[in-house]
Every structure is written in structure tokens, then in C-alpha cells.
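ok so for the tutorial part 2 we go from a plain amino acid sequence to predicted C-alpha cells. step 1 is just haveing the sequence, like this:
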Amino acid sequence: MRAELLRGRYEALEVVGSGGEGEVIRASDRLHGRQVALKVRPVSGETSRAHLLSEARLLLSLSPHPGLPLAREDFFVDERYVIAMDRIEGTDIEALRAVAPR
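step 2 — the prediction. this is what the C-alpha cells look like for a chain of 102 residues:
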């Protein structure tokens, strides 16, 4: 059985983080043959859609920087909003906080 592809190209591989606003999924971009991060958030009404789109405009307008993932595109799937961005390898912030001296 073939895995579902979001937008006909992104195959979800694993959830790498989740919180009150949604989740981040490591995915394979089948069109370009690379790994990406998908930020997925639930949508509830037109106000939520407008807020999510204003966040996307900001992310999509940022200049490239080595410390920030570059947002590539955004789209809606059913009642979810997705921002596809470059995946940056590294240690997640929670792992760093767990070992940091207090």
C-alpha cells in the first residue's frame, strides 16, 4: 500500500514535535527527493485561517539565514494548515534544556 502524499508530493515519516498549536512532521518531498519539515496546525473558522495566513506571509518573506528553516510553501488540507520548510538537522531544544545546568 502506498502512503498518502500531502499535496501530491509530501510523505509523512514521523512526528518530531508536538504542542498546543499543532505538530511538526519529518517528511519526504517526493518531487525534489529531499527531507523537509511540515508544520501542521488545525484550522477552526475564518479567523483562524486569517491568523495562519498572516503568519505564513511573515515566514515566507524572511530572507535566508543559516539558523532558520526556509519556508517553501503553505497550503490547507481538510481542516489542517501546513507550512513546508527546510529540515534542519540538530538537537531539539527540549533535549538541550534537559541537560543544561540550572
